[in-house]
Design brief:
The complex is a heterodimer of chains A (283) and B (182). By secondary structure, chain A is an alpha/beta fold. Chain A folds into two domains: 2-114, Glutathione S-transferase Yfyf (Class Pi), Chain A, domain 2 (Up-down Bundle); 130-279, 3-Layer(aba) Sandwich (Rossmann fold), CATH 3.40.50. Chain A has helices at 17-29, 48-51, 53-67, 79-95, 112-116, 119-128, 150-153, 163-170, 194-210, 221-229, 231-238, 249-256, 262-266, 274-279, and strands at 2-6, 32-36, 74-76, 109-111, 137-140, 174-175, 215-218, 246-248. In chain A, the strands form two sheets. Chain A has a four-stranded parallel beta sheet with strand order 2-1-3-4. In chain A, strands 6-5-7-8 form a four-stranded parallel beta sheet, with helices on both faces. In chain A, strand 1 (2-6), helix 1 (17-29) and strand 2 form a beta-alpha-beta unit. In chain A, helix 1 crosses helix 12 and helix 3 (53-67) crosses helix 4 (79-95). Chain A is globular, with a radius of gyration of 18 Å. The relative contact order of chain A is 0.15. The mean pLDDT of chain A is 96. Chain B folds into two domains: 8-97, Alpha-helical ferredoxin (Fumarate Reductase Iron-sulfur Protein, Chain B, domain 2, Orthogonal Bundle); 105-181, no CATH class. Chain B has helices at 8-16, 28-32, 43-51, 55-59, 63-66, 72-76, 83-97, 105-120, 125-136, 143-151, 166-181. In chain B, helix 8 crosses helix 9. The two termini of chain B are 24 Å apart. The chains are: A alpha/beta (283), B mainly alpha (182). At the A-B interface, helix 2, helix 3 and helix 9 of A face helix 6, helix 7, helix 8, helix 9 and helix 10 of B.
Amino acid sequence: MKEVSYYPGCSLHGTAREYDDSIQGVSSLLGIQLQELDDWTCCGASSAHCTSEELAIELAARNLAIAEKSNRELLVPCVACYSRFKAVETELKEHSKKIHFPYQGNVPIRYSLDFFCDGPILEEVKKKRTKPLSGLKVACYYGCLTVRPPKVTGIRQYENPQHMDHLMKLLGAEPIPWSYKTDCCGASLVMTRTDIVRKLSQRLLSMAKEAEADCLVTGCPMCQANLDTRQDELEKETKEKYDLPILYFTELMGLALGHKDVKKWFGRHIVDPVKMLRAKRLM
Amino acid sequence: MNASENTFLAEVHQASGETVQDCYQCQKCSAGCPVAYAMDILPNQVLRHIQYDHREKVLASKTIWICASCYTCSVRCPNNIDIAKIMDTLRNIAIRSGIKPGEKNIPIFHSVFLNTIKSKGRIHELSLILQFKTKTRDFLKDAGLGWKMYKRGKIKLFPSRFGSGKEIQDIFNAFEGSQKKS
């Protein structure tokens, strides 16, 4: 059994609970044991880096110093947390920045999507897939920090990434080609400039619909929330019908692996995915 | 450029490590920026203003707050200027300088966000939203949506406290001390 340290981050204990539950569920089916970091605290995203670089580095480094006490990889499901942790790594290694917390820079920081796309894990997924997602057309939505900046993420095809597409194919789904894979949803502007998030999200939803996607798949709690929660008001505003479920990639992994709790995860969504999945005879 | 020079360009260079003087105005950053339409100065213009030492103009702009940190500009810059990182630097300088921000609510959001971390160690979304609404006097916005999310178990009612109290306090004490000094 593979053991990894786990930093859920604040969103996964709140608005992104189904992401937390599905990561835990899928991990246990794949023989991966998650050890949640003791007494972890907020990484500082989205506000610390806008306010003070020092504050951003220290808030993130505190958690990395805790993770460094073990030799395990650190699994980070929220891409904003991941990006802040990687920023500490860059400052430490490339700019020899002094950090208050005793962090040496030795923790392998892994973003969940990259982690689950590792060769051996994909092999395991292939072996344990009990319910292929046949006929399900998915728009793989990577968003920003999953791929950018590539000097941080290490993703080579950052304008047209393929790893989530590949994972979805392995689950039996059909990833559709579309040009908005890495466009921004407006992220944390949702509280302050909701108009901007509405405009960017509307374009993403509209383009995914035009490409005939049945659902949109993401690994970012902020993208999921922005795209899932605003469809009602956008429909009223644009008179366009979206009704597009926004799923975490781990939820679809759970569905294909036959996890018993998928219905519970889907029940937390604002746009109900169950109706669509039943019509496709996937539930 | 001389790093000891007392210019805005030198200040930005020193704080960000980025070479703003390399910008030759190809405008690729602004062409790809998803939020450029809502900005008062385009990203390429921000770089030009920095070169021209227009400190006040840049720090009081809407642009530095509207930037969503999506990094599209940074990856497309032919001169490898990390423009998104510069936006972070500009926000940091603007807050320290106490210049009236071009966007009212965004800096309030950040300060409420950080206060939540300071008092609780983690972000408790409901506390964050309520504090932000109290400061901006906008109680009705998204109330219906909040209820829908609550019904689906996405809103935790009560926060818990984490972060070995003192460690998080120490981080914030150091930060607040450095803000006062400058």
